[in-house]
Amino acid sequence: MQYTVGVEYALHCLVYLIDVPSKESVGIKDLAEFQGLSETFLSKVFGKLSKAGIVSSVPGVKGGYKLAKSPEDISFWDVVEAIEGPKPIFQCKNIKENGYLYREGCCSAPTFCTINLVMLSAEEKMRDDLRSKKLSWLNEELNRVLPKQIREDTRKYFS
């Protein structure tokens, strides 16, 4: 299982938007330049974030994006689901029904797959953990672990 790099870029960019005054926005060009990636790629990421209601776009020459919700109301899972979609990681193909005994009609397959139940349970635990981590937590954690100068320089870049 692997999430695309879009999730990582989204989380980084969303943290940068936290300190942007509510009447202002940050352009994709600035976000992409700061991250060192293409505007096209980041535009696709932000299109998904916008569709999910995590950011809102501001049209015009000075337009860009800003948070559509409070950082306390945006979880890591919200971002993952916006970028990756809602489908489960494990896709049960119900292969037990192809087994010899079931093919030969000796037995009937149970209506549930134990393997699928375990995998779905594990995924739900991961989702719960990601739901518990909010963008506001990430911002506080970065303030704690990164040098103060890096955080200040980042804020200056986007102001």
| Spatial gap, N to C terminus | 37 Å
Q: Write out the strand line-up for the largest beta sheet, numbering strands in chain order.
A: 1-2
Average pLDDT, rounded to a whole number, is 90
Going by CATH, the architecture of the domain at 5-87 and 134-157 would be: Orthogonal Bundle
What is the element string, with H for helices and E for strands? HHHEEHHHHH
For the CA atoms, what is the radius of gyration? Answer: 21 Å
- What is the molecular shape? elongated
Structure write-up:
The mean pLDDT is 90. A hairpin with a 5-residue loop joins strand 1 (55-58) and strand 2. This protein has 8 helices and 2 strands. Strands 1-2 form a two-stranded antiparallel ribbon. 55% of the residues lie in helices and 5% in strands. The two termini are 37 Å apart.
